[in-house]
Amino acid sequence: MSWTTPLTLQGDYVVVKPLSLNQAEQFIEAVCDGELWNLWYTRIPQPDQMIAEITRRLALQQAGSMLPFCIEDRHTHQVLGMTTFMNIEPTHRRVEIGSTWYRRSAQRTPVNTEVKRLLLTHAFEYWKCIAVEFRTSSFNVQSQMAIQRLGAKLDGVLRSHQIVQGEILRDTHVYSILQQEWPAVRHHLDYLMSKQR
């Protein structure tokens, strides 16, 4: 089975399921919860850009470099956000978890911890990944803290890595979890989830 074959992962709180253009209206409603596109240091689509963003992610899936997901509340079926496996490298058994955003009301809840637990389990236990990477802007302190809370370690900072707009450049913080670290990280995530139940 290809690393970009659509799959569904289910937890206690969320269902992580294949991205589809049919979900566009639900994503538009979700991104309006907090007007997330106003966060200048990250790329979250405005409502009128949502179809183009879904189309972009699905094209990257077809090209073999991304596996995009819709994050849905398991009980209410409300769309909570998007995430992906990206920069997929099956030959080197590496992948990045990124291009993630959550509606404001889902932030600082068990949602992110469970989503990452599901994705990391698939990456390390099914794909047998050697490393899973996370990247975020130097200005996205909330994201940095969330990544560190998972148990990922900072590999380094890519200075002036991306053009945000005009003369504004982004420094990218690169984190990873290694295969040999996964048992401890898995135990830590289970502990975090048990505290939130």
TrEMBL record:
A single GO molecular-function term is: acyltransferase activity, transferring groups other than amino-acyl groups
Keyword hit for Transferase: yes
Q: Which UniProt keywords apply?
A: Transferase
Q: Lineage from the top down?
A: Bacteria, Pseudomonadati, Pseudomonadota, Gammaproteobacteria, Moraxellales
Q: Which residues form the N-acetyltransferase domain?
A: 16-153
Origin superkingdom: Bacteria
EC nos: 2.-.-.-
Q: Which InterPro entries match?
A: Acyl_CoA_acyltransferase (IPR016181), GNAT_dom (IPR000182)
Pfam families assigned to the protein according to its UniProt record, in alphabetical order: Acetyltransf_3 (PF13302)
Asked if the record carries the keyword Transferase, the reply is yes
What name appears for this protein in its UniProt entry? GNAT family protein
